[in-house]
Amino acid sequence: MINVNHNYILIFILMSLVACNSEQSNYVEDSSFADTCKNLPVAANKELPLSSASDDWFQVYESYEGVYSIVEPFQFQMSISHLILGNDRALLFDTGMGILPIKPVIERITSLPLTVLNSHTHFDHVGGNAEFSDILAIESAYTKQNMLGFKHDEVAGDVAAEAFCGDSPTGLDVNAYHTRAWSASNYIADGESINLGGRIIEVMHVPGHTPDAVALLDEENGLLFTGDTFYDDNLWLFSPETSLDDYSNSIDRLVGIEDKIKYIFGAHTSARVNTGRLAKVQASLKKLRSGETNPINEIQGRLIYQIDGINFVTSRAALEGKQGDIKAGASGL
Q1: CB-based burial of residue 169 (10 Å sphere; 0-12 exposed, 13-18 middle, 19+ buried)?
Q2: Whole-angstrom Cα distance, residue 188 to residue 201?
Q3: Which residue, of 122, 162, 243, 322, has the greatest Cβ tally within 10 A?
Q4: pLDDT top residue among 299 and 261
Q5: Residue 179 carries which DSSP code?
Q6: What's the angle, vertex CA 324, arms to CA 233 and CA 215, rounded to 5?
Q7: 284-296 burial: b if 16+ Cβ within 10 Å, else e
Q8: Residue 137 has pLDDT above 60, yes or no
Q9: Is the pTM of this model over 0.85?
């Protein structure tokens, strides 16, 4: 999740963080991530109103009427959870890293009954799930395995000193960080709608990045919430559970509705971007998969591509159509 203007130096750092787990790794001291820290908020977020619900860890932006984008900008993932308000209910799309509790932030914004739905069940999107009781999920073996939580040694790299802007936040034990187990109160499938009262949210199953990835469509307002299927940064498509066939089909599906969309809300870095980006991803992805473009670098088995303004981080296995055992859950990447 690195801004495309930062080159691939930071990708090396992030690959090291992701790969290190409980092992000690060497890092570049003067990195573009350090530069990012010095220039927060990122440009797209700087244009949005900052909500008084923000605190020292969570920066909350009023990214659209009735939409609050909750960013964790001081950790390299820059995870974003989106709170969507209706007249009767609220929907929280992702719960972040779980580094600090997210529920108090939600309670500062709304007292409406709340439902949680995750864009997918990688650890950096379900970290706060255990704080809530009403959780919808895609029914799959992959999802159910991830409900058990992620152990410290699977995610330790994300709380290494180099993962933060400055010191780690007060209240976090970096030696014990993990994500807690959670359970779904109900399951939801592709094409189902969630009525928030005066606001209808359609659920779209968009596998590829993970088998259980979903996007949300607020058609009346022209809003699309894409999780990790698209965000304004390098697109990570290297995890064992990633399927480029599925991802390509999902991007094609989203491009098919892009003319209905005004704004796209991704799960990392920029809370909101203008529409039109998905068609660019589609075109660049076709070039990536055709083999006509060479990677600009290979770092720890990750292939770095820059294609017509879209950056991909993938692997030979993914490009060859190989997928790991998805019944075993996520890899912790």
Answers
A1: middle
A2: 12
A3: 122
A4: 261
A5: B
A6: 40
A7: bbeebbeeeeebe
A8: yes
A9: yes
